[in-house]
Amino acid sequence: MPTTEETEVALSIDISRRGREIQGSPIRKLAAVAEARKRQGVTVYHLNIGQPDLPTPPAVLDAIHHFDHTTIAYAPSNGLAPAVTAWKKYFTHHGVSFAENEIIVTAGGSEAIIFALCAVCDTDDEVIVFEPFYTNYNGFATIANVRLRAVPLSISNGFHLPPEEEIERHITARTRAILFCNPSNPTGTIYTREELQRLVNLSRKHGLFLLSDEVYREFAYDAPAISIADFPEIRDRAIVLDSCSKRFNVCGARIGALASHNADVVSAALKFGMARLSVATVDQLAVAPLLSDPETYTRPIVEEFRRRRDVVIDGLRSIPGVTYYKPEGAFYIVVGLPVKDAEHFSRWLIEEFTLENETVLVAPAPGFYATPGKGTNEVRLAFMLNEAHLHRSLRILKAALEAYHAKFGS
Ligand SMILES: Cc1ncc(COP(=O)(O)O)c(C=O)c1O
What we know:
Layout (H helix, E strand, L loop, with lengths): L3 H8 L5 H5 L9 H9 L3 E4 L11 H8 L15 H13 L9 E4 L1 H13 L5 E6 L4 H9 L2 E6 L11 H5 L6 E7 L11 H14 L2 E5 L24 E6 L12 E5 L2 H13 L5 H12 L1 H24 L14 E5 L5 H10 L6 E4 L1 E2 L13 E5 L4 H22 L2
Parallel strand pairs: 1-10, 3-4, 3-5, 5-6, 6-7
Antiparallel strand pairs: 2-8, 7-8, 9-12, 11-12
Helix pairs in contact: 4-11, 5-11, 6-7, 6-10, 12-14
The chain binds pyridoxal-5'-phosphate.
The site of pyridoxal-5'-phosphate has 13 residues, from helix 6.
């Protein structure tokens, strides 16, 4: 029988450093406060999270309802044949050619990014990212045991990439890859061919993989987003990370893909895939037909988001002191507010402020930066609401900034 003392020692066992230190989602930080506010009868407009509000295409729901296999069996680890073929067709539709054995179906873009990091990095290797960046890159890096090195971008040029030499300063002997998102979450920036060429040049010069997160590919309002697979000179170094989540409003179906011409990368990703057995069978079958005929579904969705972007820009124009640019893609914008501390403002906005019994939940931008002290006066807005609600949200933001200045100065 253990003594009481021994039992207590056993109970105080520590979890891993990774487990303790992995970042919680800054996007969801204020969500509990918002729920409390709703219970008080306040209407809360959510501009904090990229969960599309539009309906899932009926064809997907029909396929789920009419699933007629007697067993929901494991799928092959690289994906069910119809899903792999559909991804191939999808890429071809966008002018990018991958053979079926160069594609692994993953549980969303998230798993594709984790597989790619694990395939190209060893413990404590470094990966370049551009800040502000999709905050879950922190969590993926922790899972893969790699370090992110953030190259700062600036709101003053719409968060476009710095010159090649500036990026190069962040490359060390441990750097294995550059991970970027195009179109970008959280900034909505789309990199030009010339900007991507800078990354391609660095990849060739320093032997780096380019991990290109293209989950917002279709959300390109002014000019198309260029895939990293469109640069033949780095054929073996480019890894495309993709997802059906946003473009088809099927976030919960968890269907993504990793695609690369590098056979070693694909073989490693397949073995990671074998370890998790498979991606959900029903969801793969239900979503695959959309990939074979993507624009039928994406065109109306993208047009809706273009209108929403324009409503947000119109609203921001009427707010004194804000800094912004026109996002070229995705459905996010990082906005500089005329306040010292966007975290404080965002909390006050959801906890205390209402206009006609309504308020707004925004995501403070510091959570999207790796460098302490960056983005302190910025918030990210996600335009996931219909035009009328977006219009209201921007009016509330404007009134809130006036009230905040009256109460706190700046
Ligand atoms: C930039 C970016 N990459 C990847 C993902 C992962 O999404 P999923 O795993 O649903 O494909 C998201 C989700 O918001 C995202 O914004």
